[in-house]
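Hey, I was hoping to borrow your eyes for a little while. There's a protein on my desk that I can't quite get my head around. The fold is given in discrete form, as structure tokens running alongside the sequence. I'd be grateful if you could look everything over and explain what you see. Here's the protein in full, and shout if anything looks odd to you:
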Amino acid sequence: MSINSALQAGVSGLVANSSALATISDNIANVNATGYKRTRTDFTTLVQQAGGVNLYSAGGVSSSNQQLVREQGLLTATNSNSDLGISGQGLFVVSPQSGALNTSGDVLFTRVGSFSPDETGNFKNQAGYFLQGWRVATDGTVNTNPSDLNNLETVNIGNISGTAEATDRATINGNLKASQPISAAATLTIPSATYDPTNSTINMASGAVTPDVQWAIQSFDSRGGLKTITVSLLKTNVANQWATEIHVSPAASINNTGSGMVNGQLRTGTLVFTSDGRLDLTAAQNTALLAPLVINDEAAAAAVGQARWAVGQGVSDQTIQLNLGQTAEGGGVTQYDSPSVQVSSTSNGAVFGDLTGVDIDKYGFVTANYNNGVSRRVFQIPVATFQNPNGLVAESGGAFRVTPDSGSFNMKVPGQGGSGSLSSRSLETSNVDLASEFTGLITTQRAYSASAKIVTTADEMLDVLIRIKR
């Protein structure tokens, strides 16, 4: 009977609008929840087969709910450098437990980026979920496998100790006086009776021969120990050429056995300039002299042209690119007829320093900063994307779990491959629009009341039908 179907249609309207009221209530309650994604209720009509030519059977309505994960909320600034927001698509990979991930169901995804270190240094958000990331290798590389959870681990800054940094680049900027008088030790032929870089009694590194110009620059070994690299120069009687010795102080830290050098020398040769006062980059002498300086481990075999650390130094091998003007970095040494001067010198490397804090950039790199000026990348935070993020199923605390509707996840470097970039010192607000929700409250209330009126009207009509018998 059509009246019965009308009664059922009214009941379905009550049920559907009750569900809509529940979603609106949840949205309003979470309007200030970080990273909350509003839920939308969609209504679908139900059609029953007609009972006859002049009869119509009401089908009613059904409702379905969908959390709009794809919709982004606004990013608001905060004072914490560990607060993170995603500008664009994607979610953070998190776990309810710290440590290595596996495939046993402890992998979740969230936009709630209110992370802060716990008592052990693990990054955990306000809902108690631990942030996962790729560890950066000591050489700076990252294994960014898009689907292998075994490459992920909880981002932790509690295990980051202090560090030193060995020097691998140094630059000296200065001028050599073109009209410098030729030293009595300098002759056309080197080695000679008056100057021989391999002879401690007549070389500059030992102090036996006084250099015309001597420049120094500090460097650090792998343990942060300070060493001084000295460049000693002697003008020769060949135009635009200077005998050069590059040596380390203290000389006792270097083992020159088998290298063909003495007195802590790292390189000897001739520095050649062009007639316009620039370093002659075509001169073979410069190519040999200005090659990277190599100091091997103390246990390494002796090699010609390569020094070794002296026994007992306990530091690792080291290669230093000394730029005197032969690299593309600019600067360097010139030969003009002005006084010889060391204008400036720069080098990287640092003594041991303690951790002072971390920074996170838009590509997800977590960088540890030390009080010696060294910064080192330790983690990279991936962003997980889905073909249908709205198909994820919600968990408590603003987290989501993978479902067949969402498709599998794909972890990407932030800002690449369609994934959003990270924004530190910011949090994503709820994507709830209160104006829309309050409007929905009014329409839902009216629809619910109208459905209730269907039920009462159908009840009155059935009562009339029952009274026919009387």
User: Anything to note?
Assistant: Residues 256 and 262 are 6 Å apart (CA to CA). The radius of gyration is 38 Å. The mean pLDDT is 89. The helical segments are 2-29, 284-289, 434-467.
